[in-house]
Amino acid sequence: MFKKLDQLKSQLDSHRPLPESVVKNLRDDLILRWTYHSNAIEGNTLTLMETKVVLEGITIGGKSLREHFEAINHRDAILFVEELVQKNQSLAEWDIRNIHQLILKNIDSENAGTYRKVNVMIAGASHTPPEHFLISEQMSLFVSSINYELHPIERAARIHVDFVGIHPFVDGNGRTSRLLMNLELMKAGFPPVVIPVEQRLRYYQALDKAHVEKDYADFIQLIIEFSEKSFQPYFYALGINS
What mean pLDDT is predicted for residues 131-148? Predict the structure, then answer.
């Protein structure tokens, strides 16, 4: 399943280290697209260009303060994920809490980085997350049972699915899960995956199937497809054909 992605990675690796100007341009574009799509999936109404302006420090009239903070916070969470990539350590609960704390900074300080103390439902999903008193145990098991022998794409996809299944926080689980997924991809040398908001229904359906039927195939396939697309900006910037 992953042969083509491994070939694309090898091709990209053959051009490393990338020119500094290329790295900066790709990074700025990635942070914008990743922030816009991840927030839009959760209902944020800022457009791509409005998100760009907010990240540059300008307020958009008619948009809520929360939506502004969601954009700024997500950008800051990406920067923190980049720091974790440099450390190249196994995923820890402390890292997860810190990512989530950044996601909800200035939005919900009471619950930022804190496991939920109430039971929750996932709107529209067939899956019901575990009861709140099981969260600490389930999160401990989650980080200790990550299979680092799996291909990085499959491992990242499973981390995303399993984290969302636990739904350890009151809010911000989706954004956190996509950051955790990309943390694993980036540590393995793969470009981050941006799931477009236009694919939200397919994305949710694949997640629910994985949770209810324990069948990860559709979700892994979805991540494979978008991982393949994630190489395109790099090859375009380098002026080469994949």
Answer: 97
Residue 170 pLDDT: 97
Strands (E), the chain: none
Of 68, 74, 160, 167, the active-site residue reads 167
Q: Which of 129, 150, 149 is nearest to 139 (CA)?
A: 129
Buried b (16+ CB within 10 A) or exposed e, 83-92: ebbeeeeebe
Task: For tokens 């409005």, name the residue.
Answer: 50
**Looking at residue 109, which CATH number applies to its domain?**
1.10.3290.10
Nearest to 80 by CA among 227, 168, 180, 185: 180
What percent of the chain clears pLDDT 70, i.e. is strictly above it? Answer: 100
**Inter-CA distances, 129 with 35, 133, 165, 181, 190, Å:** 26, 11, 6, 19, 30
3-state secondary structure of 61: coil
What domain range includes position 165? 3-238
Q: What is the mean pLDDT of the chain?
A: 96
Of 107, 102, 110, 99, nearest in space to 143 by CA:
99
Cα 96 to Cα 153: distance, rounded to the nearest angstrom: 19
- The candidate with the shortest Cα–Cα distance to 104, out of 43, 154, 171, is 171
How many structural domains comprise the chain?
1
Contact criterion met (CB below 8 Å) for 172 and 69: no
What predicted TM-score, i.e. pTM, was given to this entire model? 0.96
Q: Reply yes or no on whether 167 is catalytic.
A: yes
